[in-house]
Design goal:
The chain has 312 residues and is an alpha/beta fold. The chain has a domain of 218 residues: 3-Layer(aba) Sandwich (Rossmann fold), CATH 3.40.50. It has 10 helices and 13 strands. Strands 3-2-1-4-5-6-11 form a 7-stranded parallel beta sheet, sandwiched between helices. β1, α1 and β2 form a beta-alpha-beta unit. α1 packs across α7 and α6 packs parallel to α8. The chain starts with a strand and ends with a helix. It binds uridine-diphosphate-N-acetylglucosamine. Uridine-diphosphate-N-acetylglucosamine binds next to α6 and β8.
């Protein structure tokens, strides 16, 4: 049994990782300030984990939580491109200063490895598709820049201090527990909630922007593999599916799935928005033996089932 510390463990991706770790009989501690994470996400496992309410911006407070930890999975962050455009200073403080604190605490506690949730947004408007990790990053938003800075810090900590790190560039993760009622959540959770509530979704732009929408269990699997995979240390690795869908295609799928004929409203293109996103997952296959097991349409169905059972 190994001991894992999951920062952001109350959040959408974090709580899915915690569930899987417990399923694998690992020991789990969660560090979360509950700013975007929710206690309900851990309700079913609360008596099986150690939960610490703390903010990664507070190094003195978080330091002791890293003692006797084997693996740190660092997901705590302020997500969302538009949030970062509205308030770059807070996104910077949490995502960059907070990540630096996590790395320092992990280094000083001599943890075995830190796996960091980086982001596909780092590629920005680089025109080459699919995205390969060697492509030049061209961040278009403060969020993208903060995530890129975080991965640079990871790589540097490996070189400078010998702390094992792996940065995973997640590509638009979606699935159960992605909160549809936050204005800063992922598009699919917003759209599915709109279908269930009989509301009209809004597409920002013409709907021809594409994403490599990745079902959460794929990201969970890649992340746990990254904790122990030999050869992954010090690397930046895409975690996606290798497929991409436009928002218009997504709406067509949802219409079919819900047997509806919804015509979305359209609004202006969001500031800082990326036009196209599509992962090359060769490195993940090579270094993590990763294979996306749940494809987009199946993931969409599972997410809709979850939403149907949960949403009001
Ligand atoms: C970005 C990152 C992603 C990261 C996420 C964290 C890219 C390619 N992806 O997601 O890796 O995990 O930030 O927050 O940069 N949209 C609508 N209507 C809505 C909501 C969104 O049309 O109601 C559009 C957006 O304008 C965008 C697309 O849907 O074009 C996806 O948006 P969203 O789900 O917020 O994710 P990204 O910004 O792509």
């Amino acid at each position: 049994m190994a001991r894992y510390l999951v920062t952001g463990g109350s959040g959408f991706i974090g709580s899915n990782i915690v569930d899987e770790l417990l399923h694998r009989n690992q020991e789990v501690a969660v560090l979360d300030n509950l700013s975007t994470g929710r206690k309900e996400n851990l309700a079913g496992v609360r008596d099986r984990i150690a939960f610490h309410e703390a903010d990664i911006r507070d190094l003195d407070k978080i330091r002791p939580l890293f003692q006797n930890t084997d693996y740190v999975i660092h997901l705590a962050a302020l997500p969302s491109v538009p949030r970062s455009v509205a308030d770059p200073i807070t996104s910077n403080a949490v995502n960059i200063d907070g990540t630096l604190n996590v790395l320092v605490a992990a280094r000083d506690a001599k943890v075995k490895r830190v796996v960091f949730a980086a982001s596909s947004s780092a590629y920005g408007d680089n025109p080459v598709l699919p995205r390969v990790e060697t492509h030049m990053p061209r961040p278009l938003s403060p969020y993208a820049l903060t995530k890129l800075a975080g991965e640079y810090y990871c790589v540097m900590f490996t070189r400078l201090y010998g702390l094992e790190t792996v940065a995973l560039r997640y590509f638009n993760i979606f699935g159960p527990r992605q909160n549809p009622d936050s204005p800063y959540t992922g598009v699919l959770s917003i759209f599915i909630a709109a279908y269930l509530r009989g509301q009209t979704p809004t597409i920002f732009g013409d709907g021809e922007q594409s994403r490599d929408f990745t079902f959460v269990s794929n990201a969970v699997d890649a992340t746990l593999r990254a904790c122990t995979a030999e050869g992954a240390v010090g690397k930046v690795i895409n975690v996606g599916t290798g497929d991409r869908y436009t928002l218009n295609q997504t709406v067509a799928l949802l219409n079919k799935m819900f047997s509806k004929q919804v015509t979305p409203d359209h609004g202006p293109v969001r500031q800082g928005d990326v036009r196209e996103s599509h992962a090359d997952i060769t490195l993940a296959r090579q270094f993590l033996s990763y294979e996306p097991l749940v494809r987009f349409e199946d993931g969409l169905r599972r997410t809709a089932d979850w939403a149907r059972a949960t949403l009001r």
